[in-house]
Every structure is written in structure tokens, then in C-alpha cells.
Design goal:
The structure holds 3 protein chains of 3 kinds. Chain A is an alpha+beta fold. Chain C has 5 helices and 9 strands, in the order ββαβββααβαββαβ. The chains are: A alpha+beta, B alpha/beta, C alpha+beta. Chains A and B meet through helix 2, helix 4, helix 5, helix 6 and helix 7 of A and helix 2, strand 8, strand 12, strand 16 and helix 18 of B.
Chain lengths: 171, 635, 214
Amino acid sequence: MELLEGEKEVIVNYVEGILEEFDPVQENLVPILQEVQERLGYIPALAMEMIATALDLPPVDVYGPATFYNQFRLVPPGKYQFKVCMGTACYMAGGQIALDSFERRLNIKEGETTPDREFGLEHVTCVGCCTLAPVVMVGDQVEGHVTPTRVDGILLAYDAITDEKENEGDK
Amino acid sequence: MNSTAIENNYNKLKARAEKNLGSLENKTVIWVGTATCGRAAGAVEIKKFFEEELQNNDLEAQVLETGCMGHCYADPMAIISKPGFPPLCYGYLDEGLVKRLVQDFIKGDDPCYEYALVALEPNDIFPTFEDFPRGLHEEKIILEHCGFIDPEQIDHYLATDGYAALARALMMGPDKIMEEINNSNLRGRGGAGFPAGLKWEATKKAEGDIKYVICNADEGDPGAFMDRSILESDPHLVLEGMIICAYAVGASKGYFYIRSEYPQAIKQLKRSIKQANEMGLLGKSILGSGFDFDLEVFVGAGAFVCGEGSALINSMEGKMGMPEHKPPRLAVQGFRNRPTALNNVKTLCYVPYIISKGADWFNSIGTPGNPGTAVFALAGKVANAGIVEVPMGTTLRHLIFEVGEGIPRDKAFKAVQIGGPSGGCLPESALDIPIDFDSLQEAGAIMGSGGMVVLDEDDCMVRIARFFLTFTQQESCGKCTFCRLGTKHMLDILTAITRGEGEMESLELLSELSEDIKVGSLCNLGKTAPNPILTTLRYFYDEYKAHIEEKRCPALMCPELIAYFIAPQKCSKLCNVCVGSCPVEAIYNRDDGLKAIDQEKCVKCDNCLKACPTDYNAVIKVSPPHLVKEMEEAM
Amino acid sequence: MSEKITITIDGKEITTDTEKKLLWVALDNDIYIPNLCAIREEERPYAGCRLCFVEIEGLEEPVTSCTQPVTEGMVVKTRTPQVDRLVKTSFELLLSDHRLQCNKCPKNKACELQKIARERKLKLKSKRIKHLERTFQIDDSPESFALDPSRCVLCNRCVWVDRNVAKAGCLGFSYRGINRIITTFNNVELTKSACTQCTLCVEACPVGALYFKE
């Protein structure tokens, strides 16, 4: 992924700041990666190289864990990230149907971001709200009992789809 | 060791806490349950409504937050305790009900009994938990305070005798603690039920001057939320168990390994650690005993395999969460190659109670060999979903049909999935087996960490096996051949079956692979991955057969094997609901004004079936899909 | 401190010392046990390939010999129905994800997979387990060698050599599960990575994943 003008500077500034907060030891790799993602939304290759230098590790040993854990993202997420829960209760209650609906409406697949970087779609494994299954998380907000109709409702609330469909019905 | 000093220090803390809490006496207090489950249902807004309504009416009452009392099905919930009335619990709250409660109960004196669920103290007017079937079967030990104290305030915990067990333990000394834990026969609640005493003993005896304790709060089973609930509702209980464990095994530093998906629990834990430090319950010379212990939170980055001890350690050391061959065990060579005691959240929660009440008391609950209680996150097709705690030995039937109050909407029970991706699905015929580590294992499931998902007639057993294999296959670390490739092939076979492309011979291969993966895998993720397949093959063979031989999904769930059909004789010209509900515009108006589905366009999202008014119930699901043609022709 | 002990493998009495792992004792005494990931110098065995199973008297289930320390009087069988079954499945699983075109492979006749097949009379093409059709990019950027992940068995040998012998820090694992793969940092070409082209990893590869071009 090519970095945009100015992005490189932002990354360097942030990561330098983060690295100052931690002892430069391998044990801090996961917390450092978490902090980078928290501030930048993802973990750019440049950040991994800086971390590797600071911790005195081969860069590939930063790349390995960054690709291993569910939490880490190597490409920028959407401004709004829809996380569809795929825990047992949610799956059996229609989690896959909810995910399909998001894919259909946003025209992206799970794990992707819309070209304008506004919306991202991913699945999570159990957010622990099984009694509201199926659930979707938008930011820190949990939406329960998500049917395809509710998916449209959520997307409308975030202007992710226009209300063309509703208008058609009125015609 | 100075016993009097420890006792005095503890009594001072407790007296101060009681004094602080005394300010609540003879006052009206509203407790809103704001654990993640409550929040998801809108508890934060409910709290705001209470506060606004009280202010608008110029009423004096305190609104506090509490955790989860386990009755998640009724969220959002609140407890109102007003002098002169028993504390009353209300569920299914919304803005209107909040206004009404403030007007009628807080301002007036009408407790709106029609909306109350239960009273929390014995009284002459309203039933308490003990008056319900659930209350009869439940026996709360570690959930005792969940949902009834403010988890953000250490004083609430101290006032309910919190940290008394720690004071007692510090006076007993490590050897006596070990004796008590060993005698209690406490088995680890992480899944396999390994005796906690043996684990501690091994760490205690291991050579080395630096030792660690780690609490595994990386609840990864995708259908389990008990640990989250406890950490959010009664965090100091876990801390207390942890400190006692550290003192017993001789550890100077401890870590909570908790998953990043639980932001609320992480916040609660960090706050609790800070409070305990300020009170002298952590840090240097705890309660003046001379014992030093520090606690930190490590946020896991998401990998189910980190439930495996050696993988967890690798991830804490900044590596990929990859399991290692055992031995060496963690007790001998764990974090930073030092002796490490790794415990599940619930295991640690029992510790303060065992120290306070004794091993004999603990053994008097449950069954011989399986003392104590079992905590489950009850979810799926069950009326009263939530967190439950029952004595070991309770039957599955009692748990699901009495405590959980059975299957909603008059559906038939089909199976109960216990233990998540490592567990299995048990059928009706297994419902009378007692819940304990050994009986469940014998039946092909495992106790697991406490996830329990109830399945009804609408749930496809091949599909649930496939769901778990999808999960284990995604979560496999990829190090060893059996797990990396074996789960992939098993998943491919299951996927083919759910699509109607399976062959009977592939069932044989499924069993063969299952058995080999069980024996051959490096770690327990792989070794237990075949369990969902083995149990469904064992108990629901006919469903596999129907998928393969008839291309039929008996539960009408597998999208490739079902079709939707609108019965013209039931459909109405006056209704258009299904047309609007269809996300892909597959439903159209026929010339006669009735509706029909374009099978080519249908994505089988189930929305039209849900949308069709019950007056008509015109949308029908069939399997195999070709039945639609026959039905159309028959019209 | 190591002591001299006697163990029995397949009826053959062997004198050895306690510090050793069973796999190496067997191999040093001309008793073949299939293996791909074992490294003699490594104290903590990787134990990933799951091929070196043996049965030990007194133990219920087969164990991996690479992780098994030898003890006095140990009685070992390298071939039992259960061992053979596990090795067969493990081998077939590995082969199901290995691009088979031996006649076009530079490691033809020098390949460990062929050796295992020969020793244990196993077929390279499984009848029961489907071959996974996956496509990978071959990296032939280095002058003398290339990396073809479609032949890789993820045995860790190249990574181990890269770290412990060459000390280059070029190769490592990334991703997980079925997507686990040997890569350079950010999956760049070897020539753009920390690779020194020392070729030690090529020599360590038991199959045709890392191979010399000529």
C-alpha cells in the first residue's frame, strides 16, 4: 500500500511517541502494536519497521505477530467499522444472514473497506451479549437482534445507503 | 508475620468501608445493571432517564451502577431499594417505565408490583428468588455479589466481607492455604478440571526465586460470557483469589490476561487494581504482612489458541501465540521461563470462599470428586438466557428446563452444545446426566469453561458442527500438521455436506480424521477440535444422512438446501409486507395480486418469513428446494 | 549430568545417555523414524510435523519421538498399527497441500517426502484425502535459488537456520492456520529483504520449497 502525502510524517510522529512510552523489550510488542492501532487505526509497514528497530528484533518478527492475531489490521479501516458477531448464539440466530446483508448493501466482502474508506466490515468472535443475538457492533455500540431490515436501518443511520429504496416504495 | 497487625489493618479498612456505605442506609437507592449485557440493551440511557426524572421531580435518591445479576434476558434491569419496602428488581426497562417507577414508587409509595420481577429480601408481599424454580436450583457462591454491589467501589466489596479471606490467608501462611486448597478438591474451571491444588503445589515446589501467577481471562469460547460478567460485576473477588494464590505459591508478580474484546472488563480490572494498591491490599507488605505482590493487566490481541498455556506465554513474550510441546509444564517453566501458576477466572473466585468457609464446606456442595458449583453462560433457544450457577451434579434437564425455563415459542428441544469448539452437542437422551467434569466427558462433550448453547428443532446439527470447525480452522495456529490441515479438510467435507454435495464415504473419512487429529495434534485446540463432529455424528447421524442422500436439511437451515415459497391460498392481496421486507427484490406481485418469490433472486435471508403477518403465515420453507416446483405445479 | 542407560527399540538393545531425545538415538542407530521438523541442536523441539510417532511400553497413546527423553529400560516400537495409522494420516495431510510434480522438482530423489514414502511404503497421492488447490507466488529473485511456498511443509528448518546459524533475521512465519506461510518482512521479495543469499536455508529445506535454480 502506497502512503499518501503527509501520512508518512504522521506515522513517524505517532510511533516515535508511542515507543517512548514503553521499555524497548520484546515483551512489549503486543501492547505497542495495540497502541499503534489505537492511534492510527491500523499498523502500517513503516510502523512495524520502526518498532523492530526500537526492540532490536528482525522486522519479520514484528510482521509475524501482527499478522497472527485477530485484533491487528494491516490496512486502514473504514471510518465506521461494522463488526458482525459470529459467536455460537449469534451464528445460530442469523449472524451469517446479517453479515450477508451488510456485504450486499455495502458491496464489499468481510474484511474489506469501502473504496472511500467510510465503512469497513468484519466479523468478531463473541462480544458476550449472547442474549441479544444476533448482534453487530458499530464502534463501541452494540446493536441487538439484527435482521436484514435492521441492517438497512443501521446503514441508513450512518448514511451508508441512501433511502432510495424507501422512496421507490412511495411511488 | 504479624497476625494482629494484619487483622487490625483489615478491620480498619472494613470499618471505613462500612462507614462510607452507611450513608446509603435509610435512603432510596436505584441500582442499574450496567455490565456489557445491560449496556447493550440500553442500561446507560436507563440510568440517565432515572437521573433526569429524579431531578425533574426534585427527588432525593441515589442512582448507582451495578454489574450483572445473571438474568440477562430481562435487561435492562434495575433494583430499587426504598426504606419501608423490600429491595425490588425490575426488568425490561424503558423510558416510560422509568418515569412511572419514579412517579409512583419513588415519589409515591406504589411499588408497581405488576412490573417487579422479584424481591431480594424475604418479605410478606412479594416473592423472592427462592420462590421460583430457578432459585430452587441455583446456588450462588462466586456469583453471590454479581449485580448487587457497585463494582467500581472497593468499599462495596469490603463491606460484604471482601478481602477478609485474604487477611485470613496471610495469617494462615502458605502451607496451611495449600492444605485447605488441596482438601477442597477444587478443580480448575478453565475446561479440563485439573486439580487446582496440584497445579499450585507444583509451582510452589518448583525451583526459582521469582515466580508468577497469571489469570486467564481470555474467554475465547464463542458463546461464553461468564468470565466477562464476573470481571465486570465483582472484580475484587478475582483479585482477592489471585493475591491468595500468589501468596500460597510464592509469586511476587501477577498478570491478568484478558481479551481486547472486553473493554468494559479491562477498565474495571485496571480500576480495581489501582484501588487495591491504594488500600494496601496490593503492592508492598500487603496488610502489613511483609508479603509483596504486584498485579498488571495484559490485553490479549485475539487468538483462541492462547487458551493453551504455552501459547498464552508466547504471546505475553511478544511472539506469535504458538503452543509448545509439554513438558515442561508452566508450573516449572512458564512466563520468562520461571515457574508460573495459570488459573481461570472462576477457579480463583472460589479461593476466597474456600479460605473463609473451609474445605469441608466446599466439599459439602456438589458431588464427590466434583465439589462446588458450575457456572454457565446459558444462551441460544432458552427462555431465561443469562449467567447461572448450580451445584455440580445438577442434571442438564433441570438446568435447561427449570433454571432456563425451557425452549421459547413452543419449539422442541433438540440439543445442547456444551464447551464450545472443544465440546459437543448432547441430545435429549443425555439430558439426565449430571453436570460434572467426568460425566460430560463420558458423553462426548466437555465441561469447558462454561458456554452452553441450547438448540431447538430449527437448528441444523451438521451446520453447527460446520460452524465450530470454521471457528477452529480459523483459530488454528497452523504449527502442527493435524490441526492446520486436518481441520481444513474436515471443514471442506462438512461444507460439501451442507451444500448437498456430500457423499456417504466422506462420513467415514470424517470419523477417521477426527480420531487421528484427537491423538496426533500438538495441543488441546487440535485434540478437541473434532469433538463437535464426533458428537453430532454419534447422536445425529440421521441428519448427516438426510443432507447427503436426500439433499435435505431436516431443520430447514442450510441455505443451499432450502427454498421459500408463498402459499397462494394463505397470501392476501391486501398485504404487501413481504415485498418491502425482501432485501433483493425477489418477491413480486402476481397478476392476481398475490405474492410470489423469484427463486433465482432469493438469497434465503428469512426476512419475508419473519415479516409475513401471523394472520397469514403464508411464507413456507421447504427442503429439498425442488419441492417448490412440485408445490407450484400442484396449485 | 548424563548417565549411560540401555533402551530397546524394535527389539534392538541400545546403550545411550539420558540427555538425548529418542528420535536421535534411533536415527543414530540406523533405525529410521520419519521426521521433517526435527533439529538436533535445538533444545526445545518444534514438534510440528507430527510424523515421528512411536509407541512406548506403558504409555497409552503414541508419542512424538523428537520430544521424548530416553529413560533406562524404555521399550520402544517404531511400527505398530496405531503408529502407522497416525503417520499415514499426517503424511497424507501434508501431501494434500504439497504441489506434486516430482519430475519437475529440483529436489526429485533428494526429497524427504519421497524418502518417507519409500521407507513406510506410503503413496504420494492419497486416495481418500482431496488435494487442496492453492496458488502461490514463486520468489525467484535471488541469483542462485528460489522459494516456492506451494511445496513448503512449514517445518521451520529454514527459519531456524536463518536465526541460529546465518543470523540474518530474514525468514519467519506469518499469518496462521491454513494461511500460515514462510515469508520475509511484509512479504517482499527475498532480494529486497534482509536476505544475505548465504543459501544455508536452501540446504536446510527437506523438500523442494527452497531450491537451487540449476
